[in-house]
Design brief:
2 domains, Lyase, Ornithine Decarboxylase, Chain A, domain 1, eight-stranded parallel β-barrel, alpha/beta, binds ligand LLP
């Protein structure tokens, strides 16, 4: 079973705390995260890099891509383990600062950075902007000039490499909105060098998420040495390479990326370029650490199928319907019960509100608890209020103790922000 999760006296526990007790104390649906799991994932990446790199080499800066799970408690925990941070919005910048990250450990990415976000990032002094287009470069130069604070920038290369576990999360293909082509990169670098308020220092790259065609990483990395050489030959300084995230996790029975191989590619291809290396893992650090704890609302048996109607819905976890993503489902108790085939669905009024079809699970009844696995990444942070459902609670478990890190959102919290114009009252 996943690190942090174990069956004790017939009941699933996370880091020593029973999921039954968590459901009693905090209700359902609720996201639950294992600190032990996050730590083991962090150690796995950091450890692979340490093993591969010579002792005197500088280790990569591991910037946690907090879009995967941006609760400030999770950020604080990852900071305590040694992570730096990758952000994509002013909101994530604020969360990162609240979690105690040094501004110099924050990199800002994204294709549509707002003026306000750019200004805030400049004022606190982030490590770098990963620039996605020439208009963005011009805008950052303009804002930096206006407020009198120079910007350190790298350019995101679109390496024209297909990666990513689903077409919606592939980012490195020529047709994708991300990054700039190699030819434009030279032009952009030159433009930036001629500008007064930006300093170009390198290149970034991110080919996609849940990349399990792992050779794609190598193919993309291999494009970098020649580009760095061309830039240097033209008199530019290249001191940083940000090689992105995308490390896959197990959802079902996928063959995983061998991190040691990945680390060796970084050592063999990137390290000789004598640059600061930045990585942006998101899902890998938190994905398997989380489960969505849910209760069976009804068992609906029909002539053709048996439905397990649970109290979690697509508004709580959208990945299955958005990406046809597989998530394991398991009962919390009665785990030796005979198997039965179910469609597991939520209460929302559309057929897309389905977590799995024809899934063999242990037999369950109304009121039983179940978990939807591997939901620590892109779970809570993609949740919505669809059907006027409050957002779930989030619980972080560490050393046999459960901590509520986000209370369940009340329906009043949602409704009270609606404003009815006077003439409709
Ligand atoms: N860096 C950049 C520039 C990114 O765009 C992303 C993810 C990451 C790093 C982190 O990638 P990771 O290591 O987590 O694969 N909502 C989708 C995933 C979207 C990923 C977006 N960018 C899902 O649920 O699968």
């Amino acid at each position: 079973m996943t690190i942090g999760y174990e069956e004790i006296n017939g009941c699933l526990h996370v880091d020593g705390v029973s999921l039954k007790k968590i459901a009693q104390d905090y209700g359902t649906p609720t996201y639950v995260y294992s600190a032990a799991n996050i730590k083991s994932q962090y150690d796995a990446i950091a450890g692979a890099m340490k093993r591969a790199f010579p002792e005197d080499a500088k280790q990569p800066k591991l910037c946690y891509a907090c879009k995967a799970n941006s609760n400030v408690a999770i950020l604080s925990y990852l900071r305590s383990l040694g992570a730096a941070l990758e952000i994509v919005s002013e909101g994530e910048l604020k969360r990162g600062l609240k979690a105690g990250f040094n501004a110099n450990d924050i990199v800002s990415t994204g294709v549509g950075k707002t003026d306000s976000e750019i200004t805030s990032c400049l004022k606190v002094g982030i490590h770098q902007f990963n620039i996605e287009s020439i208009p963005e470069l011009e805008n950052i130069n303009k804002i930096a000039g206006e407020i009198g604070i120079g910007a350190t920038v790298v350019f995101r290369l679109n390496p024209s490499v297909s990666g990513g576990g689903h077409h919606k999360i592939s980012t490195g293909r020529t047709r994708d909105k991300f990054g700039i082509s190699e030819e434009s990169l030279y032009e952009a670098y030159q433009m930036a060098s001629d500008m007064e308020h930006v300093t170009p220092v390198g290149i970034s790259m991110h080919i996609g998420s849940q990349v399990f065609t792992v050779e794609s990483f190598k193919t993309a990395f291999e494009k970098l040495p020649a580009i760095v050489k061309n830039l240097r030959d033209s008199g530019h300084s290249v001191t940083r390479l940000d090689i992105g995230g995308g490390f896959p996790i197990v959802y079902k029975d996928e063959d995983l990326l061998d991190l040691d191989r990945y680390a060796e590619w970084v050592r063999d291809i990137i390290l000789p370029l004598d640059v600061e290396i930045i990585m942006e893992p998101g899902r890998y650090l938190v994905g398997n650490a989380g489960v969505l704890l849910t209760r069976v609302a009804y068992v609906k048996e029909t002539s053709t199928r048996d439905f397990l109607v649970i109290d979690a819905a697509m508004n709580d976890l959208i990945r299955p319907t958005l990406y046809e993503a597989y998530h394991g489902i398991e009962a919390v108790e009665n785990r030796d019960a005979p198997k039965k085939t179910y469609d597991v669905v939520g209460p929302i009024c559309e057929t897309g509100d389905t977590f799995s079809t024809d899934r063999d699970l242990t037999q369950m009844a109304r009121g039983d608890l179940a978990i939807i696995q591997s939901t620590g990444a892109y779970g809570y942070c993609m949740a919505s209020n669809y059907n006027t459902r409050g957002l779930p609670a989030e619980i972080f478990v560490m050393d046999d103790k459960a901590h509520e890190i986000k209370p369940r959102q009340s329906v009043e919290d949602i409704i009270n922000t609606d404003i009815v114009p006077d003439f409709l009252k």
